[in-house]
C-alpha cells in the first residue's frame, strides 16, 4: 500500500485525555479516532491488525472444532426476560424500543440468542457436542469508559458457546478451548497468565480469565512465588486455618468510645491493633439482610459473599437501612445481642480471635474481650475476605504475590444455567428430554489489540510483533523528487509484494524527519530507507524492535529480510 493512498493521520502532540501508552500511541499513530466517549473508529492500520488477530482466532477455533456463525446485535427483550437477566444484568445493558414499543437490547453478550437458536434446531443428542462462535461488535453502557479500547461502550469480541450431553464432554471441550486461547495469545506474543476467576453476570462456575500482565491493568492477579498457581484477586482463597492466641479469656466489658467510628480510630483509642478487632458489615443478599464479620485488618470480598451465600445480587446495605434495622449507626455495629432474625456469617480468621473488640450496637460504645464462640453465634464460617500479599498460596506452595493484569479472554462452564431458565432441551439416547449442558468462551478482540500496544512500545511509538503488524515493511524514500531514490523505492516495493511481504511505501512529499517520526510511531517491524546511495543499489535497514541499523544491497535484501522477520 502506498501511504498517499491510505489514511494514517499521525499526531505530533500527546492527546490530553489519553492516560495510558496504548491509548496515546494508537491515537498519535493514526490507528483509532474517537467518535463519542467509549466509541472509536478503527482506522486502516488498526483494521489490518484486527483482521490478523481475528484470523489467528479463526485458525485456532477451527482447530478446536468450533464453527463460525454470525448472530444479530439487536436482541429481543423477551429472550433476556426468559433467562432472568433483563432485570439483573444492570445498567450496562443498552436497552431500546422499536416504533411498536417492543423492547430490545444491543448485544452485550449472546447466551440467550444462542440458547434459543440451538433449542430450535438441535433436538437430538446425536448433534452434540457442538461448538459455535462469532466475531462481532458488542455494546455495554460503561459508566466510565476509559483507557481507549480497554474499556469502551462499543467493542469487538469473539464469543463461543458449546453444547453437551454430559459434564465429561464439557470438560473435554473446555480444555480444547483453553489450549486454543493459550495458542492465540502466544501467537500475538503477549505476556499473559490464565487465572481462576468469577463468572460475574454470565453465571455458571469453573471459569478462568486470560490476563495480560500490565501495570495499568484494572484487575489484580494473585500468583504463587514458587508454583504456577494464579487467580483473580476476587477468587483467590484466603487461609482457613489460623493459630488461636493462648491468651487467658477475659470478662466481656462494654466501654465508651465517643466519636470513634472506624476500625483504625477504635483500635487506636483502645490501645489495640486493627487485627484484634472484628469488622461488622451488613449486606443485602437478594432480599435478605445479613451481617458479615471479618478481622479488622482484612477487607470483605463481596464476590465471595455472593458465591458463599449463593445469592444473585449482593450489595452493602445503606446507612438508612441499617439504622432502621438495628437502631444503630454503622460505626458501632457488632454481632453481640443482635436481632435474632439477622443471620451472622464470619470469615475463618474471626474464629481464631481472642479478647477481641467489636461494636456494641449502641452509638459510641464497643465491647472489649470478645470471644467469638462465647459471646455470639455465627451461622457459618466461610472464606469472605480478600487474600493479602504474603499470605500462604492456596495450593500450599510458597506465598502469594500480586500483579496487575488486563483481561483479554474468559472461559466459563455454564452448566445448565441458561438451558434450564429458558426451557432449552434435547432428546437423549432413551428419548427423554434433557437440558443442554453449556460452555461459554470470550475474547476481547479490540481489547487484545490495545493490550498488544500496551506491551509493545517504546518512547518513540509502537513496536508491533511480526504476526499481527499492519505491514511487515516500511519503505521510505528520503527524497521523492530524486529519480534514483523513487525508482529504487518502487522497485523494492514491487519486489517485496511479489514475495508475499506486506509493505507500506511512504511516497509522500514530506521532510525526512517527518517520515522517520511517523515510521517510529506506526512501529512496523522493518524500515528500509532509500537515500543517497540509491544509485549504487544500497539501502539502510532498521529493525524497529532492537534499533539495529545496517546497509545492504538490493540483491542481499530478500534473504536478510527473511532472517530479520523470522527472528523479530
From TrEMBL:
<dbReference type="InterPro" id="IPR045864">
    <property type="entry name" value="aa-tRNA-synth_II/BPL/LPL"/>
</dbReference>
<dbReference type="InterPro" id="IPR036621">
    <property type="entry name" value="Anticodon-bd_dom_sf"/>
</dbReference>
<dbReference type="Pfam" id="PF04073">
    <property type="entry name" value="tRNA_edit"/>
</dbReference>
<keyword id="KW-0547">Nucleotide-binding</keyword>
<comment type="subunit">
    <text>Homodimer.</text>
</comment>
<dbReference type="InterPro" id="IPR006195">
    <property type="entry name" value="aa-tRNA-synth_II"/>
</dbReference>
<dbReference type="GO" id="GO:0005524">
    <property type="term" value="F:ATP binding"/>
</dbReference>
<dbReference type="GO" id="GO:0004827">
    <property type="term" value="F:proline-tRNA ligase activity"/>
</dbReference>
<comment type="function">
    <text>Catalyzes the attachment of proline to tRNA(Pro) in a two-step reaction: proline is first activated by ATP to form Pro-AMP and then transferred to the acceptor end of tRNA(Pro). As ProRS can inadvertently accommodate and process non-cognate amino acids such as alanine and cysteine, to avoid such errors it has two additional distinct editing activities against alanine. One activity is designated as 'pretransfer' editing and involves the tRNA(Pro)-independent hydrolysis of activated Ala-AMP.</text>
</comment>
<dbReference type="InterPro" id="IPR033730">
    <property type="entry name" value="ProRS_core_prok"/>
</dbReference>
<dbReference type="GO" id="GO:0006433">
    <property type="term" value="P:prolyl-tRNA aminoacylation"/>
</dbReference>
<feature type="domain" description="Aminoacyl-transfer RNA synthetases class-II family profile">
    <location>
        <begin position="33"/>
        <end position="465"/>
    </location>
</feature>
<keyword id="KW-0963">Cytoplasm</keyword>
<dbReference type="InterPro" id="IPR002314">
    <property type="entry name" value="aa-tRNA-synt_IIb"/>
</dbReference>
<keyword id="KW-0030">Aminoacyl-tRNA synthetase</keyword>
<dbReference type="Pfam" id="PF00587">
    <property type="entry name" value="tRNA-synt_2b"/>
</dbReference>
<keyword id="KW-0436">Ligase</keyword>
<dbReference type="InterPro" id="IPR044140">
    <property type="entry name" value="ProRS_anticodon_short"/>
</dbReference>
<dbReference type="GO" id="GO:0005829">
    <property type="term" value="C:cytosol"/>
</dbReference>
<keyword id="KW-0067">ATP-binding</keyword>
<dbReference type="GO" id="GO:0140096">
    <property type="term" value="F:catalytic activity, acting on a protein"/>
</dbReference>
<dbReference type="InterPro" id="IPR004154">
    <property type="entry name" value="Anticodon-bd"/>
</dbReference>
<protein>
    <recommendedName>
        <fullName>Proline--tRNA ligase</fullName>
        <ecNumber>6.1.1.15</ecNumber>
    </recommendedName>
</protein>
<dbReference type="InterPro" id="IPR002316">
    <property type="entry name" value="Pro-tRNA-ligase_IIa"/>
</dbReference>
<dbReference type="Pfam" id="PF03129">
    <property type="entry name" value="HGTP_anticodon"/>
</dbReference>
<dbReference type="GO" id="GO:0016740">
    <property type="term" value="F:transferase activity"/>
</dbReference>
<dbReference type="InterPro" id="IPR007214">
    <property type="entry name" value="YbaK/aa-tRNA-synth-assoc-dom"/>
</dbReference>
<keyword id="KW-0648">Protein biosynthesis</keyword>
<dbReference type="GO" id="GO:0002161">
    <property type="term" value="F:aminoacyl-tRNA deacylase activity"/>
</dbReference>
<dbReference type="InterPro" id="IPR004500">
    <property type="entry name" value="Pro-tRNA-synth_IIa_bac-type"/>
</dbReference>
<dbReference type="InterPro" id="IPR023717">
    <property type="entry name" value="Pro-tRNA-Synthase_IIa_type1"/>
</dbReference>
<comment type="similarity">
    <text>Belongs to the class-II aminoacyl-tRNA synthetase family. ProS type 1 subfamily.</text>
</comment>
<dbReference type="InterPro" id="IPR036754">
    <property type="entry name" value="YbaK/aa-tRNA-synt-asso_dom_sf"/>
</dbReference>
<dbReference type="InterPro" id="IPR050062">
    <property type="entry name" value="Pro-tRNA_synthetase"/>
</dbReference>
Amino acid at each position: 500500500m502506498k501511504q498517499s493512498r491510505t489514511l494514517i493521520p499521525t499526531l505530533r502532540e500527546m492527546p490530553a485525555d489519553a492516560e495510558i501508552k496504548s491509548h496515546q500511541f494508537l491515537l498519535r499513530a493514526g490507528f483509532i479516532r474517537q467518535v463519542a466517549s467509549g466509541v472509536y473508529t478503527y482506522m486502516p492500520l488498526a483494521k489490518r491488525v484486527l483482521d490478523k488477530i481475528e484470523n489467528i482466532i479463526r485458525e485456532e477455533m477451527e482447530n478446536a472444532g468450533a464453527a463460525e456463525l454470525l448472530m444479530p446485535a439487536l436482541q429481543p427483550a423477551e429472550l433476556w426476560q426468559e433467562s432472568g437477566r433483563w432485570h439483573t444484568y444492570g445498567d450496562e445493558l443498552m436497552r431500546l424500543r422499536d416504533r411498536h414499543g417492543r423492547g430490545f437490547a444491543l448485544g452485550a453478550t449472546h447466551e440467550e440468542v444462542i440458547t434459543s437458536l440451538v433449542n430450535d434446531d438441535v433436538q437430538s443428542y446425536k448433534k452434540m457436542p457442538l461448538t459455535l462462535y462469532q466475531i462481532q461488535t458488542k455494546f455495554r453502557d460503561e459508566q466510565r469508559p476509559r483507557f481507549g479500547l480497554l474499556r469502551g461502550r462499543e467493542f469487538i469480541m469473539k464469543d463461543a458457546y458449546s453444547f453437551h450431553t454430559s459434564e465429561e464432554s464439557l470438560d473435554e471441550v473446555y480444555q480444547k478451548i483453553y489450549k486454543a486461547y493459550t495458542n492465540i495469545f502466544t501467537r500475538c506474543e503477549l505476556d499473559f497468565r490464565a487465572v481462576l476467576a468469577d463468572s460475574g453476570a454470565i453465571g455458571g462456575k469453573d471459569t478462568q480469565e486470560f490476563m495480560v500482565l500490565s501495570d495499568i491493568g484494572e484487575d489484580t492477579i494473585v500468583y504463587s512465588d514458587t508454583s504456577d498457581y494464579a487467580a483473580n484477586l476476587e477468587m483467590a482463597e484466603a487461609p482457613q486455618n489460623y493459630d488461636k492466641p493462648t491468651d487467658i479469656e477475659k470478662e466481656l466489658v462494654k466501654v465508651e468510645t465517643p466519636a470513634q467510628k472506624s476500625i483504625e480510630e477504635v483500635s487506636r483509642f483502645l490501645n489495640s491493633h486493627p487485627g484484634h478487632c472484628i469488622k461488622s458489615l451488613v449486606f443485602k443478599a437478594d432480599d435478605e439482610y445479613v451481617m458479615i464479620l471479618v478481622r479488622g485488618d482484612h477487607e470483605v470480598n463481596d464476590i465471595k459473599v455472593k458465591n458463599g451465600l449463593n445469592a444473585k445480587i449482593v450489595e452493602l446495605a445503606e446507612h438508612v437501612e441499617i439504622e432502621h434495622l438495628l437502631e444503630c449507626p454503622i460505626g458501632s455495629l457488632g454481632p453481640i445481642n443482635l436481632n435474632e432474625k439477622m443471620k451472622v456469617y464470619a470469615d475463618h480468621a474471626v474464629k481464631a480471635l481472642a479478647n477481641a473488640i467489636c461494636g456494641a450496637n449502641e452509638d459510641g460504645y464497643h465491647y472489649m474481650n470478645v470471644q467469638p464462640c462465647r459471646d455470639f453465634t455465627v451461622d457459618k464460617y466461610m472464606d469472605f475476605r480478600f487474600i493479602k500479599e504474603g499470605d500462604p498460596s492456596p495450593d500450599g506452595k510458597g506465598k502469594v504475590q500480586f500483579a496487575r493484569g488486563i483481561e483479554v479472554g474468559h472461559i466459563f462452564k455454564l452448566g445448565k444455567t441458561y438451558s434450564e431458565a429458558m426451557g432449552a432441551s434435547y432428546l437423549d439416547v432413551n428419548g427423554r428430554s434433557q437440558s443442554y449442558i453449556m460452555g461459554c468462551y470470550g475474547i476481547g478482540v479490540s481489547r487484545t489489540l490495545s493490550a498488544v500496544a500496551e506491551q509493545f512500545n517504546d518512547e518513540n511509538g509502537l513496536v508491533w510483533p511480526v504476526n499481527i503488524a499492519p505491514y511487515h515493511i516500511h519503505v521510505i524514500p528520503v527524497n521523492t523528487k530524486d529519480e534514483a531514490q523513487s525508482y529504487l523505492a518502487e522497485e523494492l516495493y514491487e519486489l517485496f509484494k511479489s514475495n508475499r511481504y506486506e509493505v507500506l511505501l511512504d511516497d509522500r512529499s514530506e521532510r525526512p524527519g517527518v517520515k522517520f517520526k511517523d515510521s517510529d510511531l506506526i512501529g512496523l517491524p522493518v524500515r528500509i530507507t532509500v537515500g543517497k546511495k540509491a544509485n549504487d543499489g544500497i539501502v539502510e535497514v532498521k529493525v524497529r524492535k532492537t534499533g539495529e541499523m545496517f546497509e545492504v544491497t538490493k540483491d542481499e535484501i530478500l534473504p536478510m529480510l527473511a532472517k530479520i522477520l523470522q527472528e523479530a
